[in-house]
Write a structure and sequence with these properties.
The chain has helices at residues 2-11, 59-65; strands at 19-26, 32-39, 46-50, 53-57, 69-73, 80-84. By secondary structure, it is of the alpha+beta class.
């Protein structure tokens, strides 16, 4: 729920954007990296609404993102979003 509050706050500063796009891109130490951007739904997107926020995922990324959780850490160690993907085989140090 903390991630949802942070997304709502940031989304309010992005006029004309309907929600959050989560995507998988090539690259990164495991062969994939994640992208988070504010965007509007595209024709073939999967759109899910969670905690009052539209989350858009393109069909190619959806295969890799099933069950993924977006987490926000606002603690002393640093602020930021982390993505917990149960399908990931490993992570980087």
């Amino acid at each position: 729920a903390e991630a949802a509050q942070e997304v709502k706050k940031l989304l309010a500063e992005e006029p004309g954007k309907a929600g959050l796009r989560l995507e998988v891109r090539g690259g990164g130490c495991s062969g994939f990296s994640y992208g988070l951007t504010f965007d509007n739904p595209q024709e073939n997107d999967h759109v899910v609404e969670e905690h009052g926020i539209k989350v858009m995922v393109d069909p190619k990324s959806a295969i890799y993102l099933k069950g993924t959780i977006l987490h926000f850490d606002g603690g002393l160690e640093g602020r930021g979003f982390t993505i917990k993907n149960p399908q990931a085989k490993g992570s980087c140090g």
